[in-house]
Amino acid sequence: AESSSDDEQLGQVKESRQDVEAPRAQASAPTLEEVLAQADLSDEDEDDLAACADAKNSTAEASSKGELHEPGLSERQDASGKVGLDELLAMGSDSSSDERAPEPTRVVQTGMQAEKSPKSSPAEGQALDETEAFLQAPFEWCLEHERSLLLSDKCLSPDSGSSGCEARPRLVEVKSCSELRRFLAQEAGLPTCAAASSKRVGVGTLRGAMVLLDHKLQDISSKPMVLIPGEEASAVTVTAAAFSYDGGSLLVGHKSGQVALWDLASNKVACLYFLSFFTGTFGRLDFEKQLLLEQSSNIGVTLRVLPLQVCSQQNHPADAYCLVALCASNATVLLTLHPSAQVVQKIQYNAKDASWVPDAAWLRLEPQDWADSGQVEVSDPQLCVAYGHTIHLMRVSHVMNDAKGKEEFKVSMVGRFSWPSLICGLTAFNDSVVAILDAARLSVVQLPVERPSNQAVQLSAVHAEDITNFSLAFHTTPADGREMRSHHGALSVFRGRARTLYVCGMKEVWSFQIGRWGQHIESLVNRSDWPTALDVLLALRRGSLPPLLDLPHALQPRQKSVDSRITQVIQSYLVNNLRADVGKAQVRQICSTAIQVCVEAQLWPVLYKTVFECFKATGHMNVYCTALEPFIVHGRIPRNEMDSEVLSSILQSYALPLEEEEQAAQHSTIDGTKYAFCDIDHCPQLFPVARRLQQLVLCTDVSRLDLNLAIRLFTQYRLWTALVHVYCALGDYVSPLELLAGECAQLTKQCSKDLVEAPLLQCLLVRKLFFFLFRCFELRSFPLEPKDGMGLVQPSPTAIIDLIDSIFKTADPSKAPPMFLRLLRLSPLGLFRMLSVLFTSPSASRAIQDSAGKRVGQEQLSLNSLFRLIQSSLEAAKKEDSTLAHSQKEFLWFVARSLPRAKTQLTIEEVMQVVDHLLAWPVKGARREVEQMLIGVLASQECFDGRAHAMVISKAGGFWGLASWLHERNGDLGRALDCRLQDPELREQIFEFIITKLAEDANFALIEAALQRLQALVEVDSERCSLMLCEQFANVPDHSQVLEGLQAYPQMEMRYLESLLRRGSAAERQTFFNQYVVRYIDLLCQHCPSAVLPFILENEALPLRECLDLCGRYRVTDASVHLLERTGDFAGVLQLVLGDYREAIEKLCTFFSSGDRGVVSKVAKKLLAAQDGQPAEAWWEGLPEAQKCISLLQNVYDLSSRNSNIMTEAQLEELWFGVLGFTVRKQESVTSISNERRRAGLALVLREMSSKAMAGVVAYLSLPRCLKWICTEFGQSSLGIWKDPLQSMLSGLGFQQGLLQAATAVAAQDVMKPFVVLKMCGSRGALVS
């Protein structure tokens, strides 16, 4: 079933026309039925046409009745899922849902020539809403209208074409060498090692034989070649083997220590060597060179010798120096053998585990791969070293050593990779593909192109094979007291055209053959699976599939190689499948696939030459054009890569569909309405083909179009947006103005004659005209931004000058310019709105100012001269046409917008006309804009005096911003503030206004006016008002008036005084301190008593008597106590503290009697938890009465600690006995509370407080005196709270008594007697008791 998207709709419409390139100059165009009759259609297509004709007849009947029924998708499609051609013309952007089709743009106004049914009142209301939205923001409405036509309809979307399948095919084939297994088991013995070169493959056995395999069969032939040593050599187990580079010789090592060199041409042993395990030497006397390999503590035991394969095509210095890598148990050593053995680099291992076995491999292009690689320069060989979980990749280069003055080899790290498992073996297929052996898997890995040397890259396998059942052959080597198990002889790569890895097990041999992409693609092509073959090539090009063996590893060479293969496959695809008699669906599929691949691979010559010519030659050019359009619209094809011939063909393919669409639209109605203006702007539903063409043109390179054909099509079918875009892209902005103005003049004849601004309100082309001029004057692309269309270009500043010259160009200076007059007759609103942009837009104003020497009319172009030119042109136009008198109102709006930048001086009468017109205009939500325009006009006029200001103020009822500005200009700042306070929006900004004005000029009149209206400012926002006072008014020279105004707002006065105490120089602060500190302390005592004491402690030089009176008046206890201490009046201190404590205890008891039960319960729970040993909490938090008591107790502690040496014992006893006694007496009266829970809670609180008071008593008073006082005052008390304190006192007294007794005994003892005895004894021993 075919999709019903709009691009396929357009494609089917085009495909049904075969003669689209025929000349259009015919007497009458063929009808749709005639074209369909001439089309070459299959039987299925004829069935579709029959259903299509029935649907068309039913549609025609519905249209004759004034009803247009839009069939659903199920009605449009037949059993095969195909859509009729006539239905395609009427379907919207997404025909899968009728509700998605966009509504036509309706602009309905009184007098509009539209035949409407009585049921159309909702549509009229909608149209009126749209008209109102247009009048409020005309150019924004036009922009959204253009966006709805060109962007909201996503009808052109590229087909996916190919399936996009990137499934990785299995290119690694694993199989067992079954014939070899049988032969080894029966005759030659079990395998021990494998060896391979670019021509031969061999397997060593336990019986000392070498069995040669047929690399094509990947197994032995029917008559296998077996090499068995003769009598001169002992036939014992083969431990290692290696072929020569040319495959003519084979070196075989045996367990006995003998090494046999086989000549494969004669199948005889050419030479026999021996290896002495006792001397550690290898060789014989007639050797040209000997390499001694001995075990050492540095490199350990040599496990593998890796000579660099010679590549004659590269001619690298490493080939001449015989570069060899020795893989040992503790290090890998790189050395040269020619002209002498010399170490180049040693890579030492840091062994972390005894089971780690190192391995290495050379990465280099094979000779047979050199031609396919696309590589030109000689590349350095790379050594890949694996150890543990890490693989290091190093480049070996031959560079000049400046210090030594000679060339030498240099080894540099180029990459580091990590593998999830412990690496047991490593071998290479080519310069980027390796095989990694771990404990459970043998993995084929493609090394990544990006190789950061500073971090390890995690490798992923192209193919992984489970080898747990393979039982790989291994060698055990003693090294450093441990046995190293290595699999170096078990892996060997045949380096022929088809790379095969041979894996030697203990019983059989397996082959891992890596296929080539070319073979895989060829197999797909042979199966006619062309899309999948192209998908594979695209995946190889983008890198989502590994290049493996037959593609270069580097990005650019790989893409170049893949591009050539894509070109070949596409050519074969088209030649083998595209014919003239192929069905339409198959043709579309072929075209979509070919285009998708060419675009993604950026094969533009193939797309525009090969593919285009094939479709053109087979008569399917329309399919090609239709499929290519979405890629152009969506920016998939760069503008500079578009082909002019293809674009011209696409334009030609639109000719007939546009004509038929035009004819169908003339006889159609929408919701029973027949529109006077039937075009793409008014009825977009009826013109899907035209909409697609406009989308296409906006994204193309206009210079590559057939301009004659494009302009003719766009003009004939009224595609004005596309036409204007073509001219703009060519740098011609005057021609679109003339064309649109002429067309609008013809269309306005159909508009209502009784409606003001009828052309602008009823004809969308008039709106498009002024929107075009607006965008040009803004130096912005028409109709959208460049990001919305690749082909959109922004105008240059010279475009503004050219348009101004065209609008005001006249042969007779006494008459109105013709173009100006035509635009004025079309719409004064549109004209003056558009002209005002020249003054309000910074880019337009700058372009006019930069046009030095340019003359328009009789004067040089400037904003002032342009304003005068517009004014004079309007006067001349009104003289020529009396019907333009209503344009004066729009001109007044123009004056209001442009006069501030034009700086033209008008008469007072002219200014008052502007003022009267703007103030009388019934604005909705634009009052602030009107005020700003009026302020700009009045500010630009130098002759506007105070009398004129008064006239404007008298008329500006409700325009409080304007009135405020006028009062401010007259110097009446108080009234300016009053006006701002009247407007809700300006009220919120009044503080910013005052701050801004004070920043410009410290005007005391503004401060005075603000203070007079302080109450109103506080009502607006008291916090912001206070902040403004502290930050802005604190800099005035005289603060008395400010403070006088703040007396009614004590908190603001306090914050103001606080800010003053921190400003200015030290002398200024001291002067202000002496003058206002008492008032500041007074305010602190009233509103922030907790801050009084810190302020007093910070400032010692205070008037004590005044401060003490204030603190006593407002009961600020802590500050009063501090001041009384400073005066030495401890009696007053005691009286004040005890009185406050007594009052606080009373309030606490009152709260527990009748306060919040929840708070009482929380306090009790905290105290009980503390008694149970849980972490103590501040039980008084959340209870202000308790906080007051605790604070007073802390003050008593602080007072005693500070003055314990000054206060008399009687004063201390009065203080502490008073606190303790009052607390205990309150405890005794707890029983008066009736509620048990409240009584228990208060008892816990008083007990806690009495314990704190008792601690102070014990700390600051003598124990006998305390004991005597307790017994005297509370000897008869029934409270059990005295047990612990009394026990503590008695213990203290007992301790003191014991201390006195001990001191008495010490004093009574003769301490000198022992020393006298010692002296008398002299040197003799003495007994000291």
Architecture overview:
The protein has 1329 residues and is of the alpha+beta class. The protein is 51% helix and 12% strand. The protein is built from 54 helices and 29 strands. Strands 14-15-16-17-21 form a 5-stranded mixed beta sheet, with no helix packed on it.
Summarize this structure briefly.
The chain is an alpha+beta fold. 51% of the residues lie in helices and 12% in strands.
Structural class by secondary-structure content:
alpha+beta
Apparent shape: flat
Number of helices: 54
Tell me the fraction of residues in β-strands, as a range: 5-15%
Q: What is the subunit organization of this protein?
A: single chain
Number of DSSP strand runs: 29
Task: Tell me the layout of helices and strands.
Layout: H1 6-15, H2 32-38, H3 43-64, H4 73-76, H5 85-90, H6 121-136, H7 138-150, E1 172-176, H8 178-188, E2 191-196, E3 201-205, E4 210-213, E5 225-227, E6 238-243, E7 249-254, E8 258-263, E9 268-274, E10 302-307, H9 317-320, E11 323-328, E12 331-336, E13 342-348, E14 359-363, H10 367-373, E15 382-387, E16 390-401, E17 406-418, E18 425-428, E19 433-437, E20 441-446, E21 457-458, E22 461-466, E23 475-479, E24 482-486, E25 491-494, E26 500-504, E27 509-514, H11 517-526, H12 530-542, H13 555-577, H14 584-601, H15 604-617, H16 621-633, H17 644-653, H18 655-666, H19 688-698, H20 707-716, H21 720-729, H22 734-747, H23 758-762, H24 764-777, H25 797-807, H26 818-826, H27 828-840, H28 842-850, E28 855-856, E29 859-860, H29 863-880, H30 887-902, H31 908-920, H32 927-940, H33 946-955, H34 960-969, H35 973-982, H36 984-988, H37 990-1000, H38 1004-1012, H39 1014-1020, H40 1022-1032, H41 1040-1045, H42 1050-1060, H43 1066-1087, H44 1092-1098, H45 1104-1113, H46 1117-1127, H47 1130-1154, H48 1157-1171, H49 1184-1203, H50 1209-1228, H51 1236-1260, ...
Parallel strand pairs: 17-21
Antiparallel strand pairs: 1-27, 2-3, 3-4, 4-5, 6-7, 7-8, 8-9, 10-11, 11-12, 12-13, 14-15, 15-16, 16-17, 18-19, 19-20, 20-22, 23-24, 25-26, 26-27, 28-29
Helix pairs in contact: 1-16, 6-7, 7-24, 11-12, 12-13, 12-14, 13-14, 13-15, 14-15, 14-16, 15-16, 16-17, 16-19, 19-21, 20-21, 22-24, 22-26, 24-27, 25-28, 26-27, 27-28, 27-30, 29-30, 30-31, 30-32, 31-32, 32-34, 33-34, 34-35, 37-40, 39-40, 40-42, 42-43, 43-45, 45-46, 46-47, 47-49, 47-50, 47-51, 48-51, ...
